[in-house]
Amino acid sequence: SEGPQRHFPLRCLQISSFANSSWSRTDGLAWLGELQAYTWRNDSDTIRFLKPWSQGRFSDQQWENLQHIFLVYRISFTRDIQEFVTMLHVDYPFDIQISGGCEVLLGNTSKSFLDIAFQGKAVVSFQGTFWVPDPDSPPWVQKACKVANQDRGTRETVQWLLDSICPGLVRGLLETGKSELEKPVQPEAWLSSGPAPGPGRLLLGCHVSGFYPNPVWAMWMRGEQEQPGTRRGDVLPQADGTWYLRVTLDVAAGEAAGLSCRVRHSSLGDQDIILYWGRGQAS
Ligand code: J76
User: Which own/partner contact pairs does 102-106 have at CB distance under 8 Å and 24+ positions apart?
Assistant: First the structure.
């Protein structure tokens, strides 16, 4: 087979909130490419599969083992952080975010990453076999890394998770999830007129909804001419895993006729969607 055309990194996210010395919670979630495949809630001992293909090619026993590792880790991590805070005089409340995972590349290679943020700022990453503090991270973080680096068993486990388990899991997921991951979903598009930006002006909206995967191109056009005043909104996630985008154009009311909105997406091949202003709008 040709292997994956697009890239599907596995991104595991951990969010830990520490309110005070007696209250904290840790939640996790993981994405393969743009699709969320797992959640791991603070009140649950099990990692929940969100997709029919989330188990990948791992056996029930392998998942049991992984779950056990994460259960021990969650308790130990919480205790470690609380100890560091007491020892190194850190103030509550704070959040720690961890992003770790890997991407399988061509030729049986993979690339992994593990980054830790404190109060939203990157402070530590795991590199090779060690916890490495950012040079400008607070002194207590640097001390905590020195302590964490003394635990060789944990460093070996982290390395094994990143360099062996993660790529192995991803290879299986790319097989079990192939059809959903690789199948583009066509957007639908419609036009609207928004609140008048000023006297004698119109705000034309072009809505593009329900596409997968994410990159999409949408522009207001006059014939073949792209309208440079086109303003692109944020691409917003929808609950079903598809995306939504709105592009708008502020025009003089008299110049709206002859404008169109053009949409290109991988699901459409060469068949761009073209919607003409004035056909169907009350204008
Ligand atoms: C991100 C995934 C990491 C998975 C790590 C799993 C390993 C684990 O749970 N270790 C804890 C238990 O370790 C004991 O038991 C192991 C076998 O189960 C080994 O024998 C090991 O040698 C033994 O000590 C261990 O308590 C860890 O300390 C848990 C926390 C790991 C961690 O994230 N530590 C950490 C990393 C960076 C702490 C601080 C920092 C820097 C400061 C960050 C500031 C925001």
Answer: 102/9, 102/10, 102/162, 102/163, 102/166, 102/167, 102/170, 103/7, 103/8, 103/9, 103/10, 103/170, 104/4, 104/8, 104/167, 104/170, 104/171, 104/174, 106/3
